[in-house]
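Quick one:
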Amino acid sequence: MAARGLVIAAPSSGSGKTTVTLGLLRALARRGVAVRAAKSGPDYIDPAFHAAACGRTSVNLDAWAMQPAELRARAALQGGDLLLVEGAMGVLDAGRDDCGSVADLAAALALPLVLVLDVARTGQSAVLPVAGLRALRPDLPLAGVILNNVGSDGHAALCARAIAAAGVPVFGALPREAGMRLPERHLGLVQAAETDGLQAFLDTLADRIERHLDLDRLAQAAGPLAAPEAPVPARLPPLGQRIAVASDAAFAFAYPHLLADWRAQGAEVLPFSPLADQAPSPGADAVFLPGGYPELHGGRLAAAALFRAGMQAAARRGARIYGECGGYMTLGSGMVDAEGTAHAMLGLLPLETSFATRKLSLGYRRLSPLPGAPWQGALMAHEFHYATITREGAEGRLFHAVDATGSPLPEMGLQSGSVAGSFAHVIAAA
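Output:
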């Protein structure tokens, strides 16, 4: 069977896209469907929940950072029979240059949309987002609607009649129930690996999907995945041939597609856990510290003597060391946590950061690497953090940067010898 796909979208954040997507993935997997998943945009957390639900790695498909040909190639690489792409924010929400929305992604992939509507506070007006989307994006096929948070059978029927009268199928209605939300923290959901009872919760979501949705009809509404014109056209070169990658609750924000790209180019990826006081492999010629939540584990990281010694040894032997966001903070000399406690970090870059004084930094970034940076050529990236810089060396900048509109930003990041990092998460080569 040729691979098919659907994009699960909503008019706004908080409508229930994630729990609906997770329930669909688990329910379809239990039926023996070779279901795969992807996430729209620069989300580092939801793909891990997708993987837990269906047993396969989920990837990020970013319509701002990736060209349509790359999006189609990465979608096709997921394989399987059915691809569910979970949207982000509202279906039309985009960066400040008005591109990169879930609707743009669906158009690039030529896949139909399923709208998840939170109807807890509406009746027949539930049709308005449906009518608005059809009016504003008539190019997008709308496969149908899933009603969420209905108060009763009568409420569900009221909403469904209005939507059906507009010629749009309703695949079912999920009742309002307590306990159907995943726990959250400052950057989004608590990570999948830290969520107690996750497998039982996923089975509960799948049970609800089976009871209340026409799963067969929804799967049949999927559209064919467009055949890619070529393999992935612009893979980011690996940092080295043998790359030690920090991987645990403090450093979990490594994009799966980047690690897969490095492996596809012949690099070996060697995971290690700083929280378990593990050092990077002594044979690694590169070390990658992804983003995550080091601010929640400052004491453990400061006390991780083997990790510290291994990182300093890697720097002395000239291994390429690169840190993003939380990894960048860890490469600095010190970090202050939310309670105001200072923790000594690795001291490999002239940087001190604080999570006690918060300031949101959020948005897409176009980066131009400066001489000595790990990559050359323009990069597409995203920044999302609350930490502030309390001290940063003036020399050895890493990137020229502009925002999504092309407006100049201060130069980002630092580099010292073979060590470099910044608050930006690199998504793709431009």
